[in-house]
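Possible regression after last week's pipeline update?

I re-ran a chain I had predicted before the update to compare outputs. Posting the input and the new output here so someone can diff against the archived version. Not blocking, just want to make sure nothing changed silently.
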Amino acid sequence: MKPSELDRLIESYLEDRLAAEEAASLSAILEDSEEARERYWELVLMLGMLEQGLQAATFRAATGEEPVSPTLKKGLFFQ
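New output (post-update):
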């Protein structure tokens, strides 16, 4: 599956590797499109959940607790 140009721009922004001209393009897209703004927040929330899960797993590993197997739940990102 090839990611959309919008997703590529958002991911580059979130990873702090967006060039100046790409940043201007992303800004214009987000200003003009409610759908693009919704997609932006979906990706931001997903990244936040991933980071939170990794931090929790790291803490459990560092304290010697049993690792938790990830499970997929139906909801915002999984159907």
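Follow-up from reviewer: compared with the archived run. The two ends are 17 Å apart (CA to CA). Marking as no regression found.
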